[in-house]
Each structure stands twice: as structure tokens, then as C-alpha cells.
Design brief:
Distance between the termini: 27 Å
Structural class: alpha+beta
Helix content: 25-40%
Order of helices and strands: EEEEHEEEHE
Number of strands: 8
Radius of gyration: 16 Å
Number of helices: 2
């Protein structure tokens, strides 16, 4: 599906692997929806970016299972991730996701650091490891409030 977007050239944040840029999807009537576009710092293939979006969907599937089975009041959810091929940027590919309003918190990371006292993110990461037969661990859990 074709969409019209504007992306700020200068990142507003960056992590170890990607930069984060403000992006707006522009509707035909001029309305704008706020997103974050994430670009890898090193060159990656289109299939690698599509794999990232796919992994987000897999994490969301585990979140639904965890929420159903755990019985905890605080649920786990993931914002939808989209892959975009940018025609006006030499078909560069990036992932984007809707902007969440509020202060981001990182609950854990890829190096095993537990960054907050919240137990549900840690329980979810452990759940994914056990539920996948110890084949997968969903970590680098971050969000705004309970999302």
C-alpha cells in the first residue's frame, strides 16, 4: 500500500543499532499521524527489516498468550511495527511505529540488565524463553506507562 510520509532528517534519539526520527503519515485531507521511523546505523537488506517487523508480530503473539495464561493485572502489548520502502530515498527501508505519548522506560535490555523494579516485563521475557522451548527470548522491553 502506498502512503505519503514526511521524515525528519535529524534523529531525536538513538540506540546501539538504530536512529529514531520523527515521522508523519500525511493523509489526503492533510491530517497527520505521528510515527517514529527507525533506521539502522549500518546498511541492512530489505529482508532484514521485514524480519524485524515479523519478530514484533511474534512478540505480540507471545504477549497475548502470556496475558491469557498469567492472570496478572498488568498486561503486555506491543505497538504495531510497519516496514516502509522509501521511494524518494533510493528505496531505503525502515521500520516505523506509532508514537506513544509519555516518558519511555526501558525495563530490560539485550545484555541481561533489569532496569526497573517492574516484575511483569521480566516475567514476560522469561515466559517467552520457556514457552518457545528455550529457542527465543523477547527482551529489550520498553514502553510508556503500561504500554
Amino acid at each position: 500500500t502506498r502512503v505519503s510520509v514526511t521524515i525528519e532528517d535529524r534523529p531525536f534519539d538513538e540506540g546501539a543499532m538504530r536512529t529514531a526520527h520523527r515521522m508523519f503519515e500525511v493523509e489526503r485531507d492533510g491530517r497527520r499521524a505521528a510515527f517514529v521511523a527507525k533506521f539502522y546505523k549500518h546498511r541492512v537488506s530489505k529482508s532484514e527489516v521485514l524480519e524485524e517487523a515479523k519478530l514484533n508480530m511474534i512478540a505480540e503473539t507471545y504477549a497475548h498468550d502470556f496475558n491469557r495464561k498469567s492472570g496478572v493485572a498488568k498486561t503486555v502489548a506491543f505497538v504495531p511495527t510497519y516496514a516502509l520502502e522509501l521511494e524518494e530515498r533510493n528505496k531505503m527501508v525502515c521500520c516505523c511505529e506509532p508514537v506513544l505519548q509519555g516518558d519511555y522506560q526501558k525495563h530490560n535490555n539485550n545484555d541481561g540488565v533489569v532496569a526497573t523494579a517492574r516484575q511483569v516485563p521480566q516475567a514476560f521475557s522469561h515466559y517467552t524463553y520457556e514457552a518457545s522451548g528455550r529457542e527465543l527470548l523477547v527482551c529489550d522491553i520498553q514502553g510508556v506507562g503500561d504500554y
